[in-house]
Amino acid sequence: MNIIVAGGDGFCGWPTALYLSKQGHDVSIIDNMVRRDIDNELHSNSLTPIATLGERVAKWEELTGREIRVYEGDLTHYDFLREVLKQEKPDAFVHFAEQRSAPYSMIDREHTVYTQTNNVEGTLNVLYGIKEFVPDCHLIKLGTMGEYGTPNIPIEEGYIEIEHKGRKDVLPYPKQPGSFYHLSKVHDSHNITFACKIWGIRATDLNQGIVYGLDTDETQMDPVLTNRLDYDDVFGTALNRFIIQSAIGHDLTVYGKGGQTRGFLNIEDTVRCIEIAAENPADRGEFRVFNQFTEEFSVGELAEKVKKVAQEEGYETTISNLDNPRVEQEEHFFQAENTKLRDLGLEPHLLNDDVIREIFRTVINHKDRVIKENVMPQVSWK
Ligand code: NAD
Q1: How remote is the CA of residue 296 from the centroid of ligand 1, in Å?
Q2: Residue 245 falls in which region: left (phi positive, over 0), alpha (psi -120 to 50) or beta
Q3: pLDDT of the residue at 177
Q4: Which pLDDT does position 298 carry in this prediction?
Q5: Residue 68 in domain
Q6: Which domain covers residue 119, as residue numbers?
Q7: pLDDT per 10-residue tile (average), the chain, 382 residues
Q8: CA of 129 to the centre of ligand 1 (A)
Q9: Is residue 340 part of a domain?
Q10: Which end of the chain is more exposed for a tag (fewer CB within 10 A), N or C?
Q11: What pLDDT does 27 receive?
Q12: For a substitution probing ligand 1, which of 14, 33, 35 has the most ligand atoms within 8 Å of its CB?
Protein backbone atom coordinates (compact mmCIF):
# COMPACT_ATOMS: atom_id res chain seq x y z
CA MET A 1 0.00 0.00 0.00
CA ASN A 2 1.01 3.62 -0.47
CA ILE A 3 0.78 5.11 3.04
CA ILE A 4 1.33 8.70 4.15
CA VAL A 5 2.36 9.11 7.79
CA ALA A 6 1.58 12.69 8.80
CA GLY A 7 3.50 13.63 11.95
CA GLY A 8 6.13 11.06 10.96
CA ASP A 9 8.94 12.89 12.76
CA GLY A 10 7.18 12.55 16.14
CA PHE A 11 7.27 10.05 18.99
CA CYS A 12 4.60 7.71 17.57
CA GLY A 13 4.94 8.65 13.89
CA TRP A 14 8.64 7.92 13.39
CA PRO A 15 8.60 4.28 14.61
CA THR A 16 5.32 3.76 12.73
CA ALA A 17 6.84 4.99 9.45
CA LEU A 18 9.82 2.64 9.88
CA TYR A 19 7.64 -0.34 10.81
CA LEU A 20 5.27 0.14 7.86
CA SER A 21 8.24 0.55 5.51
CA LYS A 22 9.78 -2.67 6.83
CA GLN A 23 6.49 -4.49 6.23
CA GLY A 24 6.86 -3.59 2.54
CA HIS A 25 4.54 -0.59 2.31
CA ASP A 26 5.52 2.45 0.24
CA VAL A 27 5.77 5.13 2.94
CA SER A 28 6.10 8.89 2.86
CA ILE A 29 6.16 11.35 5.75
CA ILE A 30 4.54 14.76 6.14
CA ASP A 31 5.81 16.89 9.03
CA ASN A 32 6.30 20.59 9.61
CA MET A 33 8.88 20.04 12.39
CA VAL A 34 6.84 22.08 14.83
CA ARG A 35 7.53 19.62 17.65
CA ARG A 36 11.25 20.43 17.41
CA ASP A 37 10.40 24.17 17.43
CA ILE A 38 8.27 23.68 20.56
CA ASP A 39 11.31 22.15 22.32
CA ASN A 40 13.11 25.45 21.65
CA GLU A 41 10.12 27.47 22.82
CA LEU A 42 9.93 25.53 26.11
CA HIS A 43 13.74 25.37 26.53
CA SER A 44 13.33 21.62 26.61
CA ASN A 45 14.68 18.62 24.69
CA SER A 46 14.21 14.95 23.95
CA LEU A 47 15.97 12.81 26.56
CA THR A 48 17.46 10.84 23.70
CA PRO A 49 19.55 12.75 21.12
CA ILE A 50 17.59 12.69 17.84
CA ALA A 51 18.97 13.10 14.33
CA THR A 52 17.32 15.39 11.77
CA LEU A 53 14.53 13.80 9.74
CA GLY A 54 16.76 13.95 6.64
CA GLU A 55 19.50 12.03 8.43
CA ARG A 56 16.98 9.52 9.76
CA VAL A 57 15.48 8.57 6.40
CA ALA A 58 18.93 8.51 4.72
CA LYS A 59 20.16 6.04 7.36
CA TRP A 60 17.02 3.90 6.92
CA GLU A 61 17.62 3.73 3.17
CA GLU A 62 21.30 2.90 3.70
CA LEU A 63 20.42 0.04 6.08
CA THR A 64 17.40 -1.42 4.30
CA GLY A 65 17.45 -0.13 0.72
CA ARG A 66 13.94 1.24 1.33
CA GLU A 67 13.07 4.82 0.55
CA ILE A 68 10.83 6.94 2.80
CA ARG A 69 9.96 10.18 1.00
CA VAL A 70 9.73 13.36 3.11
CA TYR A 71 7.36 16.27 2.52
CA GLU A 72 8.23 19.05 4.93
CA GLY A 73 5.14 21.20 5.31
CA ASP A 74 2.05 22.03 7.31
CA LEU A 75 -1.35 20.30 7.11
CA THR A 76 -2.98 23.69 7.69
CA HIS A 77 -1.53 24.80 4.30
CA TYR A 78 -3.99 23.26 1.89
CA ASP A 79 -1.98 24.09 -1.26
CA PHE A 80 0.91 22.04 0.14
CA LEU A 81 -1.27 19.11 1.23
CA ARG A 82 -3.10 19.02 -2.11
CA GLU A 83 0.18 18.65 -4.02
CA VAL A 84 1.33 15.79 -1.76
CA LEU A 85 -1.96 13.91 -2.20
CA LYS A 86 -1.86 14.36 -5.99
CA GLN A 87 1.74 13.12 -6.06
CA GLU A 88 1.36 10.13 -3.72
CA LYS A 89 -2.24 9.02 -4.31
CA PRO A 90 -2.20 7.21 -0.93
CA ASP A 91 -4.30 4.16 -0.06
CA ALA A 92 -4.11 5.16 3.62
CA PHE A 93 -3.43 8.45 5.36
CA VAL A 94 -2.20 7.99 8.95
CA HIS A 95 -2.77 11.25 10.81
CA PHE A 96 -0.55 11.79 13.87
CA ALA A 97 0.21 15.45 13.01
CA GLU A 98 -1.36 17.39 15.85
CA GLN A 99 -0.35 19.38 18.92
CA ARG A 100 -0.72 16.59 21.45
CA SER A 101 0.07 17.99 24.89
CA ALA A 102 -2.80 18.76 27.27
CA PRO A 103 -0.65 21.09 29.44
CA TYR A 104 0.62 22.94 26.33
CA SER A 105 -2.98 23.60 25.30
CA MET A 106 -3.67 25.06 28.77
CA ILE A 107 -0.71 27.49 28.99
CA ASP A 108 -2.70 30.55 27.92
CA ARG A 109 -5.16 31.81 25.30
CA GLU A 110 -2.57 31.75 22.49
CA HIS A 111 -1.64 28.12 23.12
CA THR A 112 -5.28 27.07 23.32
CA VAL A 113 -6.09 28.81 20.04
CA TYR A 114 -2.97 27.39 18.38
CA THR A 115 -3.81 23.83 19.53
CA GLN A 116 -7.38 23.92 18.31
CA THR A 117 -6.59 25.78 15.06
CA ASN A 118 -3.70 23.48 14.21
CA ASN A 119 -5.58 20.29 15.01
CA VAL A 120 -9.07 21.07 13.75
CA GLU A 121 -7.99 22.94 10.61
CA GLY A 122 -5.35 20.34 9.74
CA THR A 123 -7.90 17.53 9.98
CA LEU A 124 -10.49 19.47 7.97
CA ASN A 125 -7.89 19.96 5.23
CA VAL A 126 -7.11 16.23 5.24
CA LEU A 127 -10.84 15.47 4.89
CA TYR A 128 -11.24 17.90 1.98
CA GLY A 129 -8.04 16.62 0.38
CA ILE A 130 -9.26 13.02 0.52
CA LYS A 131 -12.66 14.01 -0.87
CA GLU A 132 -11.19 15.98 -3.76
CA PHE A 133 -8.18 13.90 -4.80
CA VAL A 134 -8.23 10.39 -3.29
CA PRO A 135 -11.84 9.56 -2.34
CA ASP A 136 -11.05 5.89 -1.72
CA CYS A 137 -8.17 6.65 0.69
CA HIS A 138 -8.64 5.34 4.25
CA LEU A 139 -8.12 8.00 6.92
CA ILE A 140 -6.51 6.52 10.05
CA LYS A 141 -6.80 9.28 12.60
CA LEU A 142 -5.23 9.35 16.04
CA GLY A 143 -7.78 10.28 18.66
CA THR A 144 -7.37 9.74 22.39
CA MET A 145 -9.05 7.84 25.21
CA GLY A 146 -9.14 11.24 26.92
CA GLU A 147 -12.05 12.18 24.65
CA TYR A 148 -14.33 10.07 26.85
CA GLY A 149 -13.25 11.50 30.21
CA THR A 150 -14.13 9.40 33.26
CA PRO A 151 -17.87 8.58 33.17
CA ASN A 152 -19.36 6.44 35.94
CA ILE A 153 -20.33 3.71 33.43
CA PRO A 154 -18.17 1.45 31.20
CA ILE A 155 -16.69 3.15 28.12
CA GLU A 156 -17.63 1.51 24.81
CA GLU A 157 -15.69 1.69 21.53
CA GLY A 158 -17.09 4.85 20.03
CA TYR A 159 -20.81 4.07 20.19
CA ILE A 160 -23.38 3.16 22.85
CA GLU A 161 -26.87 1.67 22.57
CA ILE A 162 -29.31 3.86 24.47
CA GLU A 163 -32.93 3.24 25.35
CA HIS A 164 -34.85 6.44 25.98
CA LYS A 165 -38.59 6.88 26.49
CA GLY A 166 -39.30 3.49 25.00
CA ARG A 167 -37.09 3.94 21.91
CA LYS A 168 -33.61 2.60 21.15
CA ASP A 169 -30.70 3.91 19.08
CA VAL A 170 -26.94 3.43 18.73
CA LEU A 171 -25.37 6.84 19.29
CA PRO A 172 -21.86 8.29 19.58
CA TYR A 173 -20.54 7.65 23.10
CA PRO A 174 -20.72 10.87 25.22
CA LYS A 175 -17.49 12.86 25.34
CA GLN A 176 -16.30 14.67 28.48
CA PRO A 177 -12.72 15.73 27.68
CA GLY A 178 -10.45 17.28 30.30
CA SER A 179 -8.38 19.88 28.41
CA PHE A 180 -8.56 22.14 25.35
CA TYR A 181 -6.25 19.64 23.62
CA HIS A 182 -8.63 16.75 24.31
CA LEU A 183 -11.49 18.96 23.13
CA SER A 184 -9.68 19.48 19.81
CA LYS A 185 -9.79 15.70 19.33
CA VAL A 186 -13.53 15.64 20.06
CA HIS A 187 -14.06 18.39 17.47
CA ASP A 188 -12.03 16.31 14.99
CA SER A 189 -14.14 13.23 15.71
CA HIS A 190 -17.34 15.17 15.03
CA ASN A 191 -15.96 16.62 11.80
CA ILE A 192 -14.82 13.20 10.59
CA THR A 193 -18.18 11.60 11.47
CA PHE A 194 -19.93 14.24 9.41
CA ALA A 195 -17.53 13.96 6.44
CA CYS A 196 -17.98 10.17 6.36
CA LYS A 197 -21.73 10.61 6.33
CA ILE A 198 -21.96 13.28 3.62
CA TRP A 199 -19.04 12.35 1.34
CA GLY A 200 -18.69 8.62 1.93
CA ILE A 201 -15.13 8.90 3.27
CA ARG A 202 -13.73 5.80 5.00
CA ALA A 203 -12.21 6.57 8.41
CA THR A 204 -10.92 4.88 11.54
CA ASP A 205 -10.55 6.90 14.73
CA LEU A 206 -8.00 5.28 17.03
CA ASN A 207 -8.72 6.44 20.55
CA GLN A 208 -5.27 5.83 21.84
CA GLY A 209 -4.27 5.47 25.48
CA ILE A 210 -1.04 6.83 26.93
CA VAL A 211 1.96 5.41 25.08
CA TYR A 212 5.06 4.26 26.96
CA GLY A 213 8.48 2.97 25.89
CA LEU A 214 10.59 4.40 23.08
CA ASP A 215 12.20 1.57 21.13
CA THR A 216 10.96 -0.73 18.42
CA ASP A 217 13.07 -3.29 16.51
CA GLU A 218 13.53 -0.72 13.76
CA THR A 219 14.55 2.30 15.87
CA GLN A 220 17.14 0.10 17.57
CA MET A 221 18.91 -0.71 14.30
CA ASP A 222 21.16 2.37 14.53
CA PRO A 223 21.61 5.38 16.88
CA VAL A 224 20.58 7.69 14.02
CA LEU A 225 17.14 6.00 14.05
CA THR A 226 16.63 6.65 17.80
CA ASN A 227 13.14 7.79 18.77
CA ARG A 228 12.42 10.94 20.76
CA LEU A 229 11.59 10.60 24.47
CA ASP A 230 9.80 13.37 26.36
CA TYR A 231 10.21 13.84 30.11
CA ASP A 232 9.30 17.47 30.82
CA ASP A 233 6.12 18.56 32.62
CA VAL A 234 4.48 19.66 29.35
CA PHE A 235 5.14 16.73 26.98
CA GLY A 236 6.32 13.93 29.29
CA THR A 237 3.56 11.38 29.88
CA ALA A 238 2.97 9.17 32.93
CA LEU A 239 5.23 6.11 33.16
CA ASN A 240 7.94 7.42 30.76
CA ARG A 241 8.10 10.56 32.92
CA PHE A 242 8.26 8.53 36.15
CA ILE A 243 11.02 6.29 34.84
CA ILE A 244 13.13 9.32 33.90
CA GLN A 245 12.44 11.00 37.24
CA SER A 246 13.61 7.90 39.10
CA ALA A 247 16.78 7.76 36.98
CA ILE A 248 17.81 11.31 37.92
CA GLY A 249 16.95 10.91 41.62
CA HIS A 250 13.86 13.16 41.41
CA ASP A 251 10.69 12.43 43.34
CA LEU A 252 8.00 10.79 41.21
CA THR A 253 5.48 13.57 40.61
CA VAL A 254 2.04 12.03 41.16
CA TYR A 255 -0.64 14.70 40.77
CA GLY A 256 -3.15 14.69 43.65
CA LYS A 257 -4.25 11.36 45.11
CA GLY A 258 -2.99 9.34 42.13
CA GLY A 259 -6.21 7.37 41.68
CA GLN A 260 -6.58 8.76 38.13
CA THR A 261 -6.93 5.62 35.99
CA ARG A 262 -6.13 5.58 32.27
CA GLY A 263 -5.54 3.16 29.39
CA PHE A 264 -1.89 2.51 28.44
CA LEU A 265 -0.01 0.76 25.63
CA ASN A 266 3.55 0.03 24.57
CA ILE A 267 4.92 1.92 21.54
CA GLU A 268 5.47 -1.52 19.94
CA ASP A 269 1.70 -2.01 20.01
CA THR A 270 1.03 1.48 18.59
CA VAL A 271 2.88 0.62 15.37
CA ARG A 272 1.12 -2.73 15.06
CA CYS A 273 -2.33 -1.17 15.66
CA ILE A 274 -1.73 1.22 12.76
CA GLU A 275 -0.79 -1.71 10.53
CA ILE A 276 -3.93 -3.61 11.58
CA ALA A 277 -6.13 -0.59 10.84
CA ALA A 278 -4.46 -0.08 7.44
CA GLU A 279 -4.82 -3.72 6.43
CA ASN A 280 -8.50 -3.81 7.47
CA PRO A 281 -9.88 -0.55 6.09
CA ALA A 282 -13.21 0.93 7.12
CA ASP A 283 -15.97 0.75 4.51
CA ARG A 284 -16.83 3.78 2.36
CA GLY A 285 -18.92 6.10 4.52
CA GLU A 286 -18.04 4.26 7.73
CA PHE A 287 -16.68 6.13 10.76
CA ARG A 288 -15.12 3.30 12.75
CA VAL A 289 -13.78 3.74 16.28
CA PHE A 290 -11.24 1.51 18.04
CA ASN A 291 -10.06 2.02 21.62
CA GLN A 292 -6.30 1.61 21.26
CA PHE A 293 -4.88 0.60 24.63
CA THR A 294 -3.96 -2.72 26.19
CA GLU A 295 -4.07 -2.25 29.98
CA GLU A 296 -5.51 0.10 32.61
CA PHE A 297 -3.50 1.49 35.52
CA SER A 298 -3.89 4.26 38.05
CA VAL A 299 -1.11 6.83 38.09
CA GLY A 300 -0.34 5.85 41.70
CA GLU A 301 0.03 2.17 40.71
CA LEU A 302 2.50 3.10 37.97
CA ALA A 303 4.58 5.16 40.36
CA GLU A 304 4.77 2.14 42.71
CA LYS A 305 5.86 -0.13 39.86
CA VAL A 306 8.60 2.27 38.79
CA LYS A 307 9.77 2.76 42.37
CA LYS A 308 10.16 -1.02 42.83
CA VAL A 309 12.22 -1.51 39.66
CA ALA A 310 14.36 1.58 40.32
CA GLN A 311 15.14 0.25 43.80
CA GLU A 312 16.15 -3.13 42.35
CA GLU A 313 18.50 -1.22 40.04
CA GLY A 314 20.02 0.56 43.05
CA TYR A 315 18.14 3.88 42.81
CA GLU A 316 16.28 5.06 45.90
CA THR A 317 13.01 6.72 44.82
CA THR A 318 10.33 8.69 46.69
CA ILE A 319 6.76 9.17 45.51
CA SER A 320 5.53 12.72 46.01
CA ASN A 321 1.80 13.54 45.83
CA LEU A 322 1.74 17.12 44.52
CA ASP A 323 -1.15 19.56 44.47
CA ASN A 324 -2.93 18.64 41.25
CA PRO A 325 -2.34 21.33 38.59
CA ARG A 326 -5.21 19.81 36.57
CA VAL A 327 -8.93 19.79 37.23
CA GLU A 328 -9.87 16.10 37.18
CA GLN A 329 -11.36 13.35 39.34
CA GLU A 330 -8.63 11.75 41.44
CA GLU A 331 -10.64 8.67 42.43
CA HIS A 332 -13.20 7.29 40.02
CA PHE A 333 -14.67 4.30 38.22
CA PHE A 334 -12.86 3.36 34.99
CA GLN A 335 -13.58 0.43 32.74
CA ALA A 336 -13.16 0.65 28.98
CA GLU A 337 -13.73 -1.80 26.11
CA ASN A 338 -10.74 -2.60 23.90
CA THR A 339 -11.62 -5.79 22.01
CA LYS A 340 -11.80 -4.62 18.39
CA LEU A 341 -8.05 -4.40 17.69
CA ARG A 342 -7.44 -7.71 19.45
CA ASP A 343 -10.19 -9.34 17.39
CA LEU A 344 -8.23 -8.18 14.32
CA GLY A 345 -5.00 -9.77 15.57
CA LEU A 346 -3.28 -7.45 18.08
CA GLU A 347 -1.15 -9.43 20.53
CA PRO A 348 -0.40 -6.96 23.32
CA HIS A 349 3.04 -6.38 24.83
CA LEU A 350 2.05 -6.16 28.49
CA LEU A 351 3.75 -4.06 31.15
CA ASN A 352 5.94 -5.96 33.59
CA ASP A 353 9.07 -5.23 35.60
CA ASP A 354 11.37 -6.29 32.77
CA VAL A 355 9.74 -3.81 30.37
CA ILE A 356 10.17 -1.01 32.92
CA ARG A 357 13.76 -2.15 33.56
CA GLU A 358 14.63 -2.03 29.86
CA ILE A 359 13.31 1.53 29.48
CA PHE A 360 15.06 2.48 32.74
CA ARG A 361 18.43 1.20 31.48
CA THR A 362 18.09 3.12 28.20
CA VAL A 363 17.16 6.24 30.12
CA ILE A 364 20.17 5.95 32.44
CA ASN A 365 22.49 6.29 29.42
CA HIS A 366 21.08 9.75 28.64
CA LYS A 367 20.21 11.08 32.09
CA ASP A 368 22.82 13.86 31.86
CA ARG A 369 20.70 15.50 29.14
CA VAL A 370 17.79 16.13 31.53
CA ILE A 371 17.08 19.83 32.15
CA LYS A 372 15.98 19.53 35.77
CA GLU A 373 13.99 22.80 35.88
CA ASN A 374 11.57 21.24 33.37
CA VAL A 375 10.50 18.33 35.55
CA MET A 376 8.06 19.94 38.01
CA PRO A 377 4.58 20.90 36.73
CA GLN A 378 4.32 24.58 35.80
CA VAL A 379 1.05 24.77 33.86
CA SER A 380 -2.15 25.11 35.86
CA TRP A 381 -5.65 24.40 34.57
CA LYS A 382 -7.14 27.18 36.73
P1 NAD B 1 4.51 14.28 18.71
O2 NAD B 1 4.31 15.71 19.09
O3 NAD B 1 5.77 13.61 19.13
O4 NAD B 1 4.38 14.14 17.12
C5 NAD B 1 3.47 14.89 16.35
C6 NAD B 1 4.19 15.30 15.06
O7 NAD B 1 3.28 16.03 14.24
C8 NAD B 1 5.41 16.20 15.31
O9 NAD B 1 6.53 15.68 14.65
C10 NAD B 1 4.97 17.56 14.77
O11 NAD B 1 6.07 18.29 14.23
C12 NAD B 1 3.94 17.17 13.71
N13 NAD B 1 2.89 18.19 13.46
C14 NAD B 1 2.10 18.82 14.38
N15 NAD B 1 1.27 19.67 13.76
C16 NAD B 1 1.52 19.56 12.42
C17 NAD B 1 0.95 20.19 11.26
N18 NAD B 1 0.00 21.11 11.35
N19 NAD B 1 1.44 19.85 10.05
C20 NAD B 1 2.44 18.91 9.93
N21 NAD B 1 3.01 18.31 11.00
C22 NAD B 1 2.55 18.63 12.22
O23 NAD B 1 3.23 13.49 19.23
P24 NAD B 1 3.04 11.90 19.45
O25 NAD B 1 3.24 11.61 20.89
O26 NAD B 1 3.80 11.15 18.43
O27 NAD B 1 1.49 11.76 19.15
C28 NAD B 1 1.03 11.50 17.82
C29 NAD B 1 -0.48 11.48 17.78
O30 NAD B 1 -0.97 10.47 18.66
C31 NAD B 1 -1.11 12.79 18.23
O32 NAD B 1 -2.22 13.09 17.42
C33 NAD B 1 -1.55 12.50 19.64
O34 NAD B 1 -2.65 13.28 20.02
C35 NAD B 1 -1.89 11.02 19.58
N36 NAD B 1 -1.75 10.40 20.90
C37 NAD B 1 -0.52 10.31 21.50
C38 NAD B 1 -0.40 9.72 22.76
C39 NAD B 1 0.93 9.59 23.47
O40 NAD B 1 0.95 9.05 24.58
N41 NAD B 1 2.03 10.04 22.89
C42 NAD B 1 -1.55 9.22 23.40
C43 NAD B 1 -2.79 9.31 22.76
C44 NAD B 1 -2.88 9.90 21.50
Answers
A1: 22
A2: alpha
A3: 98
A4: 98
A5: yes
A6: 2-374
A7: 99 98 98 98 97 98 98 98 98 99 98 99 99 98 98 98 98 98 98 98 98 97 98 95 95 97 98 98 98 98 98 96 97 98 98 96 95 95 96
A8: 20
A9: yes
A10: C
A11: 99
A12: 35
Count how many domains the chain has.
Answer: 1
Give residues with Cβ within 8 angstroms of 330, minimum separation 6.
255, 256, 257, 258, 259, 260, 324
The string of DSSP codes covering 337-352 is ---HHHHTT-------
What is the SS3 assignment for 286-335?
CEEEEEECCEEEEHHHHHHHHHHHHHHCCCCCCEEEECCCCCCCCCCCCC
Exposed / middle / buried, residue 356 (Cβ in 10 Å: 0-12, 13-18, 19+): buried
Within-domain flag for 380: no
Q: What is the pLDDT of residue 48?
A: 97
pTM of the predicted model as reported, rounded to 2 decimal places: 0.98
Q: Indicate which CATH number applies to the domain containing 299.
A: 3.40.50.720
The confidence score (pLDDT) of residue 284 equals: 98
- Which among 98, 262, 299, 359 is the best mutation to test ligand 1's pocket, defined by most ligand atoms within 8 Å of the CB? 98
Residues with CB under 6 Å of ligand 1 are: 7, 9-13, 30-35, 74-76, 96-100, 118, 122, 142, 144, 208, 210-211, 237
Contact 191, 123 (CB under 8 A): yes
Active site residues: 144, 181, 185
Exposed, middle or buried by CB within 10 Å (0-12, 13-18, 19+), for 165?
exposed
